[in-house]
Design goal:
The structure is a homodimer.
Chain A (H helix, E strand, L loop, with lengths): L15 E6 L13 H4 L3 H8 L2 E6 L9 H8 L11 H8 L8 E11 L5 E3 L7 H14 L6 E6 L4 E7 L27 H20 L8 E8 L7 H5 L3 E5 L2 H9 L3 E2 L6 H11 L5 E6 L1 H8 L2 H20 L4 E5 L16 E6 L22 E4 L3 H8 L9
Parallel strand pairs in A: 1-10, 1-11, 2-13, 8-9, 8-10
Antiparallel strand pairs in A: 2-12, 3-4, 3-6, 3-7, 5-6, 11-12
Helix pairs in contact in A: 2-11, 3-8, 4-8, 10-11
């Protein structure tokens, strides 16, 4: 079911800013405080005390969101029913706006022995410049019958292959056997349109082998995670919001682009992002503002640098408040506890500030402080309905 | 949808112990405390303060779970979509491992008048030894064409009949008219395979009448609740956990066996159960430990003895903690408030202890104390996903 029902969504109303602090939530050290609890975040705490507060659960209970599903959920889509393949994510992460007719796959350069078996699945991890050269070489020499081929170089041995053409399916197996000493598998399609893609991929593989024959290590390719862009109701149609994404990292610009948001040039940090928001405010009703450093610190397990990242976010809160939005929501796309060095399933602190908030004075903006708030646990795909309601953008249901 | 999605479940990870205190939850006396609130349970309170805490709701809101559905829910199955007939429950309760080809029905010995009408639906409640003799007599004398017949004696007039054979359905009516003065109804099947069963049941009824002709009171049989073992994805396949049940009462061993757990000899009380768990720990990833006395006291409405049962559980908590599990969950399969002398629909206190818990210092382990915890209300079939997550046994969803 689409939530909220589309016929209730109004095309006029207040302006909404959603600040996503990637990896916002954390966990306490044994007997101590969490990252948020130890950080000095007076502006976030004060805003939370003047807001509705609670937690946001992006996926069904116990499931840990990857960034793709986490953001789809934030944007009001059901991440459990939408396919969001690896190839798509990689294309988005390369700032490539995959179109409906294209199939993307994640690629590795690998080393093949003369008998065709894989001796190194990562071709000795070549320098990234080398990856650029290899992608350019293949793009120049390989041609696919009736289809286009784009190669987007990544870090070291990684690239993204985008095959474009009419009637291409994505139900194609990975050719990576996931073990060295074996030959890459032939590509096969699970249905008619995917068989077309599989044939093109087999042709790409054979041509690449020929073109790369003279390379010392990167003389083969492995492709996995074939995927297309899922069919989504555009954000602007579902929520009647002119929406813009302001994210420094390509992956998150890609997620915003996927649901049809415009992309605003973000600058390099949250300060510049907020300046970009201020300039673009006349043209949009909704801003998705994404900030990454807290998540990166969580992944490295560095408590002090996660605290520093959270305190840096806190310093920008007065600026955000000063922009004059009718609704400000602050939350994350998942938790990234330092003690885990990975995402986790724990719901993420959430505040929604508007004239319709129910503030609770005992709230602080951390995992335990928001338990005292009025929102309880909000499910990810419910958030948009709440934001629209707070922005006077949802009609009453029934007379 | 299966929750969690099977492809996310890892086959390696931490060890999990689930202690089910049957009938754990209760209700306050007017103006006073509940059973848990009045009990002295310092170990449970201390553990709850170092754990994630909340409540577990086994069924949809307002529904009171029987023991069968309550346990299915705890084990991660949807009790609202699984048929769990009376005959199956009785067979499991008799420690009989009903197999896929067998049909079980709950039986009563009854008294029939010479004209065939029922004069006593319970045959004067014979002593249980008499029931054993009658079952042995029937088992010796009755034979069904092309099918086997097992008779499991119960208390007083009760027994369980198990008919085994190829192609037997369970959509057979009860022959008990539920009123005295009427004749037992003929058995009829609602489909082809159930008609086979009905014919066997009619033959059993007629032969039983002949064999029991000389009995003073127990000269007839009534059968109801024909049921088969539901087709379930085995627990070990769904959750990739080598699982063992350690329950003193047969019914709960049966519930564990139904989902495919191994059964460990439990001894006679929680102390011996935990000793059995310790011995079996190297061979299993998950233990279901069931303790009954609190529920029994709730059913009898005896506040003091329910408090005593809870305090007895509390004394074993340090032993449980000492076993070295990575995840300990303590909850119940339903509430059994003394003021109700029956199960109730109220969610049951729940704690989950692991390194990923979010402890709240104000929590106590009782109906009102767990409201301060971080878990809120967890739905029964979500519990397994949470336990797997806490045991590092769930992969991230999406990249």
């Amino acid at each position: 079911m689409t939530h909220p029902p589309r016929e209730l969504v109004l095309s006029e109303g207040g302006r909404i800013a959603v600040l996503i602090v990637d990896g916002l939530g954390g966990l306490p050290l044994p007997g101590g405080g969490s990252e948020l609890e130890q950080a000095e975040i007076p502006n976030l705490d004060a805003l939370a005390r003047r807001s509705s507060a609670g937690r946001l659960q992006l996926l069904p209970t116990g499931l840990t969101p990857g960034s793709g599903p986490g953001h789809l959920s934030l944007f009001g889509y059901d991440p459990m029913t939408l396919e969001f393949g690896r190839g798509l994510l990689e294309a988005l992460g390369s700032d490539y706006p995959l179109s409906g007719g294209e199939v993307a796959a994640r690629g590795n350069f690998c080393t093949l022995a003369p008998d065709g078996s894989i001796t190194d699945r990562r071709a000795g991890r070549p320098p990234s410049e080398e990856c650029v050269r290899l992608c350019e070489l293949l793009a120049r020499e390989v041609s696919l019958e009736g289809a286009s081929l784009e190669l987007l170089p990544g870090m070291e041995h990684r690239f993204t292959a985008v095959i474009g053409g009419a009637g291409l399916g994505a139900r194609v197996n990975d050719n990576d056997p996931q073990i060295e000493g074996k030959e890459p598998l032939p590509f096969r399609g699970a249905d008619d349109i995917s068989s077309v893609t599989a044939e093109l991929a087999n042709s790409f593989f054979e041509q690449a082998r020929a073109v790369l024959r003279g390379e010392e290590r990167a003389n083969g390719i492995l492709l996995r995670g074939f995927s297309t862009r899922p069919a989504l109701d555009p954000f602007i149609e579902r929520f009647k919001l002119r929406a813009a994404g302001v994210a420094v990292y390509p992956m998150y610009r890609g997620a915003a682009r996927l649901v049809g948001m415009d992309i605003i040039e973000p600058g390099v940090d949250l300060g510049e992002q907020l300046a970009a928001v201020e300039r673009a405010m006349p043209d949009y009703d909704y801003f998705f503002i994404h900030t990454k450093p807290a998540d990166a610190a969580g992944h490295s397990g560095d408590f002090d640098s996660k605290i520093a990242a959270l305190e840096e976010v806190d310093r920008h809160i007065p600026t955000l408040e000063g922009l004059g939005f009718d609704v400000i929501a602050i939350t994350g796309d998942h938790s990234t506890p330092c003690i885990r060095k990975e995402h986790s399933w724990h719901p993420v602190p959430l505040l929604i500030h508007s004239r319709y908030a129910i503030p609770v004075p005992e709230v602080t903006f951390d995992e335990r402080g928001v338990l005292r708030g009025d929102l309880g646990v909000v499910r990810g795909p419910e958030l948009m309905a709440l934001l629209l309601a707070h922005a006077d953008r949802l009609a009453k249901y029934g007379a």
